[in-house]
Amino acid sequence: MKQYFIAGVVVTGITMTAAGGFGATMQDLIYQGATANDMAIFHGKKHLERGIKCAECHNKDVFPEKKFGAVKITMKSIAQGKHCGICHNGTRAFGVTGTCNRCHPIKSGDMVVYD
């Protein structure tokens, strides 16, 4: 019986890994700050398409918690090269100057519009 359990765990692990790493998928996440203008969107699918793995950001130095909202992200911290700013510095990925609507959508009524 023990061999069947171990075999089941191995097959399940292989299947889930092939299907996307134990079911982990990157999605778009909307971060809402204190005001309506504080909204930002994390485009998870775009990061995945560029080959960025979860562990590149979810580590003790960048985002130590994988819990939504566990780390306070500010434009100041990003501009200082923390959090998103580790990559979004104008070298590895687009910088924060003049690219506001890449992460901060312009609200039009109930619809979110991107430039």
Question: What does this molecule look like?
Answer:
This protein has about 120 residues and is of the alpha+beta class. It has one domain (about 25-115): Alpha-Beta Complex (Cytochrome C3). Helices cover about 30% and strands about 10% of the residues. The chain has helices spanning about 1-20, 45-50, 55, 75-80, and strands at about 30, 40-45, 105-110, 110-115. A hairpin with an 8-residue loop joins strand 1 (about 30) and strand 2. The protein is globular. The protein starts with a helix and ends with a strand.
Could you say which structural class the secondary elements and strand pairing correspond to?
alpha+beta
Q: Tell me the Rg in angstroms.
A: 18 Å
Largest sheet: 2 strands, antiparallel
Mean pLDDT: 73
**Quaternary:** single chain
Beta-strand portion reads 5-15%
- Unreliable spans are 4-24
Helicity range: 25-40%
C-alpha end-to-end distance: 59 Å
CATH H-level homologous superfamily name: Cytochrome C3
Question: Strands of the largest sheet, in order across it?
Answer: 1-2
The CATH class, by name, is: Alpha Beta
CATH topology title: Cytochrome C3
Q: What is the count of structural domains?
A: 1
List the helices and strands and how they pair.
Elements: H1 2-18, E1 28-31, E2 40-43, H2 44-49, H3 54-57, H4 75-79, E3 106-108, E4 111-113
Antiparallel strand pairs: 1-2, 3-4
